[in-house]
Amino acid sequence: MSRFWRVLGASVLISIAALLICPLIGPTPLDYSKIFTEGSLEAQIFWLARLPRVLLALLAGGALASAGVLFQALMRDALATPDTLGVSSGASLGAVVAICFGWSDSARLGGLWTASLLGAGIVLMIVVGLSSRGRNVSSFTLLLAGITINSMCVAIMLFLQSVTSLGRSLAITRWLMGGVDAVEYRTLGLLSLFVLPATAVLIWRSHHWNLLAVGQGWASAKGLDTRSSLRLGYAAGSILAGSVTAITGPIGFAGLIVPHALRMLIGPDHRLLLPTSFLLGGAFLAVCDAIGRTVFAPAELPVGVITALLGGPFFLWVLTSRATIKN
Amino acid sequence: MKPVYQIRDLAVVKEGRPLISDINLELAAGELVVILGPNGAGKSTLLKALSGIETVSAGEVLLGGESIAKIGRREMARQVAMVEPMLDLPFGYSAEQVVMMGRAPHMDAWFEGAEDWAQVDAALAVMDCQPLRKRDYRNLSSGEKQRVLVASALAQQPCVLLLDESAAFLDVKHQIELFEALKRLTVQGYLIVAVTHDWNLAAAWASRIILLKNGRVAAAGSPAELSNEALLLDVFGVPLEVMTIQGRPPVVLQPGASRG
Hints:
Mean pLDDT of chain A: 87
Number of strands of chain A: 0
Number of helices of chain A: 14
Largest interface: A-B, 25 and 29 residues
Helix content of chain A: over 70%
Largest sheet of chain B: 6 strands, mixed
Low-confidence stretches of chain A: none
Number of helices of chain B: 9
Shape of chain A: globular
Number of strands of chain B: 12
Distance between the termini of chain B: 45 Å
Low-confidence stretches of chain B: none
Shape of chain B: globular
Strand content of chain A: under 5%
Radius of gyration of chain A: 20 Å
CATH architecture of the domain at 3-87 and 159-252 in chain B: 3-Layer(aba) Sandwich
Order of helices and strands of chain A: HHHHHHHHHHHHHH
Helix content of chain B: 25-40%
CATH superfamily of the domain at 3-87 and 159-252 in chain B: P-loop containing nucleotide triphosphate hydrolases
Mean pLDDT of chain B: 88
Radius of gyration of chain B: 19 Å
CATH class of the domain at 3-87 and 159-252 in chain B: Alpha Beta
Oligomer: heterodimer
Order of helices and strands of chain B: EEEHEEHEHHHEHEHEEHHEE
Structural class of chain A: mainly alpha
Strand content of chain B: 25-35%
Largest sheet of chain A: none
Structural class of chain B: alpha/beta
């Protein structure tokens, strides 16, 4: 019990540190003495550009890491994440369809969000359908299915992009680059209305993910109504991946590194793994974004580029180290 | 003794093929029942039907007088614990955490309470697993894993323990230790139903053997009552020689016999 609070407390401190320090980092150096001066340039940069951006990174990174932990438990595979399973592509496709047909212009974000959530949900249903076909679908089958769904979604997105108007095509390109641009506080509030309850439900149901991570037969032998737990998990996972992708665009591998590293450090108990992944996944993305806007300053790298460059090799490392264990 | 299980005209049909049919049995507390039979005889299906995981096609299974179809999963898990043959974990749960998962049907709070820890300690002690408790389950030997799984089942505080091929991966010493532990549990009033391929284990420890053939009960009775070479030839399709050693009837395998 005391270890639980120690680890959780440390995670809270790290993400608060990220929240306080990351807004200061960027092409224009800031410090806290100037940002409270009404109307100054520093105050504007801090409150309108940097802080919302860091808050978005914390929320998005946390949501993607939580979704990663959840999918890894439900698929019993440490390499399952919203993007390796194709769920993020589904959300992207939904968003691109929304941009293409102008649904995102008319009702502000409503159309984009709905389409994104639907896309994530539909792909997840397809993956779940595939994985429940056989009793033991290997992780390679799942990952191949994810790659296939990815390619199909990309193909449809390219098709839509080539037939739509130039203006919308540009909007799609911009959106597909994936990044945590400064957003209005209203959008942040809306996103937290999706992300925070979904994460809270996941943490509350941690026991279920522990049992399901061992196996569905096991969970049901230990008295769990696996059907309703899985349904809850899939719904929460789609909401997390879909709502974040609607705002940030695709951010590759964000749900992979943090959950995996944490599982090695603190163990696989989801009561601790989920909240720490949410906190540190957010801090991780905020730091990646801070790196992205400084290394080539004044040019900015989208945060998706950083996470993919870090996450890709990490993914391959996990894949190969696991292959050697099995042989 | 009052029967724990009453099985009446039980049948399980999958894809139009009956896996088990016409099963009528009563199983009482304190029994160590071993289900034997050739591959595909329906042993595991019968066990799953008892655990409530398998959907029953016809007939009924009563647990304590109540149809198990009407008992919820959580309540079921408080009464009946199933030990899977060999369980591999994708993540590094410790042996203690695996055993603690057995508390799931009793736990309502988010953190485990004193009672949960007491039951986990007791279950670990019964299966002689205390030295393993902090170790990563994935790094345990097959025998140690099996003992941890039984401990996890015991932590459920059930009155029935169902074991599917639990001895198959164990060496001789651990097979003996497992069945000795099971025997002690029956003395405490547990009903234990174990599926195995090993006649000799059954002959040594079972209070009753149920022989299945083609999904039906071919014979049921004490090891001595079933030690009939003609019956065993009929069920298993190979001649087996029954001997009697220290009052127990083990069988001797005969090389080349399956061709005859």
